[in-house]
Amino acid sequence: MIDARxxxxxRGLVGEKGLLDKPADMAAYETGARYDRGRAAFVARPAxxxxxxxxxxxxxxxxxxxxxxxxxxxxxxxxTPDMSGAQGVLSLDRVTGGFELDQVNRSVRTGAGxxxxxxxxxxxxxxxxxxxxxxxxxxxxGMIATNTGGSRFLRYGDVxxxxxxxxxxxxxxxxxxxxxxxxxxxxxxxxxxxxxxxxTSGAFGVVTECVLNLEPLPRQTATALLVPSSSQIIPAxxxxxxxxxxxxxxxxxxxxxxxxRAALEHVPSLRNPFSRGVVPDFVILTxxxxxxxxxxxxxKLDAVLxxxxxxxxxxGDALLADAFVGPPHEMWALRHALSEGVxxxxxxxxxxxxxxxxxxxxxxxxxxxxxxQRFPGIATxxxxxxxxxxxxxxxxxxxxxxxxxxxxxxxALREWVFSICVEDFxxxxxxxxxxxxxxxxxxxxxxxAKLRRLAAALKAEASPGPLGSxxx
Length: 472
Prior knowledge:
Shape: globular
Mean pLDDT: 93
Number of strands: 19
Low-confidence stretches: none
């Protein structure tokens, strides 16, 4: 437990609204997006960089562990406290000030507590957006801490690629504020220090402000659902579409039949676009887009997509059936409903994996062949970013399955999946969810000792205080 004098001191730093210590008020901050549950000593909600610095300084000087929390949409137990009751939560939900837009530079400086949807709503008025597309609605600080990628990584890249600058509070006794808020895209004057804080789960410092690269909103978009003739043909289908469409291709998303069926069952408003309502075993959602307004005499983008798909259809056996070309909002509604649908299908054991693009379907084929023998009764409901090698590999267990009461069951399942991913396919056990308590042991196992020592040394130098849920 935390001494009451610390609670009152922190309240004095952030005000009545900025400090929560009653169980009912803290519950939302103690509960994660998927089955996580902890017990916080307090929840500090500073409203500015200066207040974050004051809170961090007090906690470091008094050896109080802090868990930075952004939108709390993560899935690896990185944003919630453990059950000890000795950790405080440092929430960014009030660090939402500032909106400094530079239209010429195509950049914006804003608070790390701003939600992605709110940022893009403001930017849309200027024909711009932050091009990291997610089904969830996180806050920017959490996106930076986890280096999220999203469905349009294929065209725009991840958060790391789209971050120009940061303001960071270090976990030292002074709560040092590090100003890395440059708006420059080219700056080769030494180490790019902002990268230390992107994708490291908040352990190296608390991001309070960010300068982000923006992109023009697409003015023309076309989408289609494709049914590949086999899993083995998908890499060739991807490269054929890249060859034909070039930079127009913005998404190439894979969706298993089980995941699609779960979404359609859970969200009745979704339209089933498939012939006679029969969902294929695997579906590709592809998107093409252009940022220019339609020009006189220019071929419409949906016609361009249809021509390319027709040529692929005629030249080989890559596609099993005619493509379902349809309204983008309907196609993406189906894709974004997958997470919720899968979650309601049963108890979810989720993995966020990454492979070279040519290995994605080989891994999925192997899993679907071996899981029924090793772990009978488990359904695979995978989907993900086939165009960049990412897979949300979800395993669904019936809620009344007796194995769920055995902690060793999930541990053995995770051990098996991760070992095949990393050891057999040279993949990553965390594509874009970063590191949390759920995968700390796998970071310890699969990260070379020299790199772990280097990371620990950087952590000790930058933020020696107890910050974050990851032990680097």
